[in-house]
Specification:
With 356 residues, the protein is of the alpha/beta class. It folds into two domains: 175 residues, P-loop containing nucleotide triphosphate hydrolases (Rossmann fold), CATH 3.40.50.300; 106 residues, no CATH class. 33% of the residues lie in helices and 20% in strands. It has 13 helices and twelve strands. The chain has an eight-stranded mixed beta sheet, sandwiched between helices. Strands 2-1-4-5 form a four-stranded antiparallel beta sheet, covered by helices on one side. A hairpin with a 2-residue loop joins β9 and β10. The longest helix has 14 residues.
């Protein structure tokens, strides 16, 4: 990927929200804390993390659907937030978002055919009416909804609404698609259908960013995984390394175990070392102060028993370190211990010594 020109480049993105208070001015909440990432043409990236980690906010900022506090986002080499209205309208033909609440994104008074026709008229003005009609029928055939041409959203099931939303996205032939929880609220069979559609309808030039907490979905579709925690990227790795044989950030391991990706004996670090909170190493600091200064996972991590390391985690922000080709994580403990790998994988001990 490093030899390719990134389609999207986000550098040092910060997003703060001002909360409201009944007793005066609110406080700033940092939703994204100096986030940097690149998305390359043709890849499928999964952005995972717990609720409230900043996933949806990041997705919206990458498409300029909400303002950022500081930082830059470049699309095809051009600063997205410096574009004028006309330039932005043109750029929006090349990127789209599949929102989580599809019913709110479908016009209740338009039929499926009318909505697709509207998208084609706006984003592909070179098509005449006959060409648009042929394209609509082809799109509905691709998502299996040919018989829903004259149906309004209220009469569609949840899975059908998702497929209509996907057809509207495909109508614009975008270079980038950001899908926010594309399978949430769907039963298991419909989830598998949606995953298959996303994979089958993706062109080699289209880039996907899948926002999800469903690691089952992630394993089936992603080529790269980014883990977001409390507004910070804590790990970025190839999806092929989503396996217990590779070392991961302790938060990523926790997500894997919660999703039952490992068996009961899969955790090689089952010992419970004291956390910084349990042993009083914070000297009365609050969790908010700790996370602002040190590792965002320090209060919950039970990985290391080295007091010097614990103090460092509490006071110093760990950088994203490349521990293997294409694999970066932010964890002093993992760097100190060395990254363990499967028996048939090359050792990364020397890489760690050079990087840390």
């Amino acid at each position: 990927m490093s030899d390719q020109q990134p389609l999207v480049e986000a550098h040092d993105v910060v997003k703060r929200f001002k909360t409201r208070s009944l007793f005066g001015s609110g406080v700033d909440v940092c939703a994204l804390d100096h986030v940097s990432l690149n998305l390359y043409p043709g890849e499928t990236v999964a952005l995972i993390g717990e609720s409230g980690s900043g996933k949806t906010t990041l997705g919206k900022i990458l498409l300029r659907l909400c303002p950022l506090t500081s930082g830059t986002v470049r699309f095809n080499g051009v600063d997205l937030f410096s574009m004028g209205a006309s330039e932005l309208r043109q750029a929006r033909r090349e990127f789209q978002m599949i929102f989580q609440n599809q019913l709110a994104n479908l016009h209740p008074r338009l039929t499926v055919g009318e909505m697709l026709d509207e998208s084609l008229r706006l984003h592909r003005p070179e098509l005449d009416q006959a060409a648009r009609q042929a394209q609509i029928e082809a799109l509905l055939g691709e998502v299996g909804l040919v018989d829903k041409l004259n149906v309004r959203p209220a009469r569609l099931s949840g899975g059908e609404r998702r497929r209509v939303g996907l057809a509207r996205i495909l109508a614009t032939r975008p270079k980038l698609v950001i899908a926010d929880e594309p399978t949430s609220g769907l039963d298991a069979a419909i989830k598998l259908q949606m995953i298959s559609l996303l994979k089958d309808l993706k062109s080699p030039e289209t880039t996907y960013l899948i926002i999800s907490h469903d690691l089952g979905l992630v394993r089936r579709i992603a080529t790269r995984i980014i883990v977001l925690l409390k507004g910070r990227i804590v790990e970025d790795f190839p999806a092929s390394r989503l396996d217990e044989g590779f070392e991961h950030h302790p938060y990523t391991q926790r997500l894997m175990h919660a999703a039952d990706l490992f068996d009961a004996n899969g955790d090689r670090r089952a010992h419970k070392a004291p956390s910084v909170v349990e042993e009083g190493f914070l000297d009365g600091r609050t969790d908010a102060i700790l996370n602002a200064e040190g590792c965002v996972y320090a209060c919950d991590c039970q990985r290391g028993s080295d007091l010097n390391l614990i103090h460092r985690c509490a006071k110093e922000r760990p950088p994203l370190v490349e521990v293997a080709l294409g694999h970066r994580l932010a964890c002093f403990a993992a760097a100190k211990e060395g990254m363990s790998t499967p028996d048939n994988a090359p050792s990364t001990d020397e890489t760690l010594k050079e990087k840390v």
